[in-house]
Specification:
Strand order of the largest sheet: 2-1-4-5-6-7
Number of helices: 14
Radius of gyration: 54 Å
Structural class: alpha/beta
Order of helices and strands: EEEHHEEEEHEHHHHHHHHEEEHEEHEEHE
Helix content: 40-55%
Strand content: 5-15%
Largest sheet: 6 strands, antiparallel
Number of strands: 16
Shape: elongated
Length: 645
């Protein structure tokens, strides 16, 4: 025995107990019993210990356990693999202990080798022989080969064993299915250790080629942009007379060197004619502008004051008009001039009105007297302003005339300003142009030659040929198996053709040269026989090719096409009908396959009991009828006590 088998499955309770289910090594183990005794939870529990992403174990089990463990052996080594139970959530806490003979601890607290799931899984894969392909730098189809991609070959659970859609466990999950399909070439031996070493090198070479191509493109883009900008600046320097383009065919390097030589360029000096006179005129002009602004401010102030006085004068005249009623009151009369009624104290009232009228009359007279002076002052300011503006125009004209006479100097000045700007941009360009490593074409050529050499020896076509050879061998094994199993028309003489990408089978009626797709086969019995034929063919192939897939097949109710698991009865005893004879034939096939395939272990979870088969009875390790208290997890295990010794 050199393939890995499951030695035992262990459950640790919340009250310090353990339950050990042992399996026959390199042989068949059958567990029979009624429904709801925990048989199907065995596959989910083993899968959970192998690092499944979810926890699909029945609630009756996970509510009563703290840890689940499996012990594995290949005859020379053993390892104990355990995982913490956290309800329906998959725990990330696992344990692994390995050696020549690992002892199952009495209590969960004694489990050794605690680690996170990914770390523990990598140790499992190392023990099973996956280390050849798990170089951290290597990715096959972007996926790492793991134990999770091997388990579809190990389980024929209730969703697969007689399915008309799914050939292998997990193919109904698109994400998991793709990971499995990507790994099949490795499990089929189409990628051997020598090729894996070559693929590692190929992976690194391709990374190196990608890096060199990026460097080449970077260098080319850098040069392209560098010389494009340099050419633009060179043309500007020519345009503004900084340099003379006496070599229109100059290459990029010469253009760049020319620009570097311009960093010390100085503009041509110029002399503006009548400079002193211009300075004097500019000084006079500035003084005139200041005086004009001062006159305008004074004028605005006077206008503002005049406006205020005018408003005040209008208000006084209004008051004066209101008080001009004193002429109707005679000081010696005591009667109202309007209604002739008698007035008391009329003399005093008339006197006061008369006094007020005289005061307002004086004030209006003052304002009226000042009006001519203000008007005259404004006229003087306007005259002065006109004179100053005229002087300013004369000075401005003189300055303009000076500039006209110095047109050549002005043009030179403007050209120097523009040229200085160009020199500034050239200086900024030179200073900020980063040096980039010159691309070495020879490195890329060497990498490409090595890749071509590897592809010639281990190319896709060669790998494809290896896969096709493996598919033909598995098809041959499957066809031989299928002929030994119960099957209905029109498949009495049909052969099975297996294809790995995507995994599928096509049945061929050789007598009539007719093909049947898997989904069109019909009959649960036919589907059961096809699944068993393929599953044992794969295990035979793995055994002969030293594959790291464990030598384990777990079958959940081979009798499913003949006896529904929903029958509300105790364990079904099978004796002698036609269906029962077919079921016996399935089990005879299984027993024979286990004897012939080296290192193969088959664990069968069954509702039926074949009392007329001595091999069936001797292989039955556990019987859990409904009338018995014996089952996977004892009924008396509590759900609410923490794990303790």
């Amino acid at each position: 025995m050199n393939r890995w088998n499951v030695h035992s499955l262990i459950f640790y309770s919340k009250h310090g107990k353990r339950r050990i289910i042992e399996f026959n090594l390199n042989d068949t183990t059958i567990i029979t019993g009624a429904s709801n005794t925990g048989k199907s939870a065995i596959i989910d529990s083993i899968d959970y210990c192998l690092g499944s992403s979810g926890c699909n174990i029945a609630s009756f089990v996970i509510e009563r356990t703290t840890h689940i463990a499996t012990k594995w052996t290949n005859g020379q080594k053993t390892f104990l693999l355990a995982r913490e139970v956290e309800g329906s959530k998959a725990s990330n806490n696992m344990f692994i202990e390995y050696g020549k003979n690992v002892i199952i601890p009495d209590y969960a607290t004694e489990l050794k080798g605690k680690g996170k799931k990914d770390k523990v899984r990598s140790i499992i894969e190392m023990l099973l022989g996956f280390q050849e392909v798990n170089d951290p730098d290597l990715k096959l189809n972007s996926n790492r080969i793991t134990i999770r991609q091997a388990v579809p070959f190990m389980y024929l659970d209730k969703s697969v064993i007689d399915s008309n859609r799914i050939l292998f466990h997990g193919l109904d999950d698109n994400r998991k299915a793709q990971l499995f399909i990507d790994a099949i070439p490795y499990f089929l031996g189409a990628i051997n250790p020598d090729e894996m070493a070559a693929l590692r090198k190929l992976f690194r070479l391709n990374k190196g080629i990608d890096n060199e191509i990026r460097k080449k493109k970077g260098f080319e883009n850098h040069e392209k942009n560098l010389y494009k900008k340099a050419k633009i600046l060179f043309n500007e320097a020519v345009q503004y007379g900084i340099i003379v383009d006496d070599n229109p065919q100059a290459d990029n390097e010469n253009i760049l060197d020319t620009l570097k030589s311009l960093l010390n360029w100085k503009p041509e000096k110029f002399i503006l004619e009548n400079k002193d006179q211009q300075i004097k005129l500019e000084t006079v002009r500035s003084k005139l502008i200041s005086e004009i602004n001062n006159i305008k401010r004074r004028r605005n102030a006077v206008l503002h004051e005049k406006s205020k006085r005018s408003s005040f004068n209008q208000a006084l005249k209004g008051q004066k008009a209101k008080l001009d009623i004193q002429k109707y009151f005679l000081l010696e009369e005591n009667t109202c001039p309007i209604c002739s009624s008698t007035l008391n104290n009329s003399h005093e009232i008339s006197k006061h009105i008369n006094n007020s009228f005289r005061e307002i009359s004086k004030e209006t007279d003052v304002i009226d007297n000042q009006e001519p002076s203000i008007k005259k002052y404004l006229e003087e300011l306007e005259t002065l302003l006109d004179s100053k503006n005229q002087n300013l125009n004369e000075i401005s004209n003189e300055i303009e005339n000076l500039l006209v006479r110095s047109e050549e100097a002005r043009k030179l000045k403007d050209m120097n300003i523009l040229a200085n700007r160009v020199i500034g941009r050239i200086s900024y360009f030179i200073e900020n142009s980063k040096d980039i490593e010159k691309f070495d074409e020879s490195v890329l050529i060497r990498y490409q030659e090595e890749v071509e050499e590897i592809n010639e020896k281990f190319g896709k076509e060669i790998r494809k040929e290896k896969i096709e050879i493996a598919e033909r061998i598995i098809s041959t094994y499957s066809t031989k198996n299928f002929k030994k199993l119960p099957r209905g028309l029109p498949f009495k003489k049909a052969s099975i053709n297996f294809f790995s990408n995507p995994p599928k089978v096509v049945l061929v009626d050789n007598e009539f040269n007719k093909e049947y797709q898997f989904t069109n086969v019909g009959s649960d019995e036919n589907y059961l026989s096809i699944h068993l034929a393929i599953a044992f063919a794969m295990q035979k192939y793995f055994s002969k090719n030293s594959s790291p897939v464990p030598g384990v097949l777990l079958l959940d109710q081979v009798s499913r096409p003949y006896y529904s698991n929903d029958i509300p009865s105790d364990e079904i005893e099978v004796k002698g009908s036609d269906d029962e004879k077919a079921l016996y034939k399935h089990f005879e096939f299984i027993f024979n396959q286990v004897e012939k395939i080296t290192g193969l272990q088959v664990i069968i979870l069954e509702h039926a009991y074949l009392s007329n088969s001595q091999k069936f009875k001797s292989s039955t390790k556990y019987r859990w009828p409904k009338s018995s208290t014996d089952r996977l997890i004892p009924n008396d295990w509590p759900t609410n006590i923490n794990s303790s010794r």
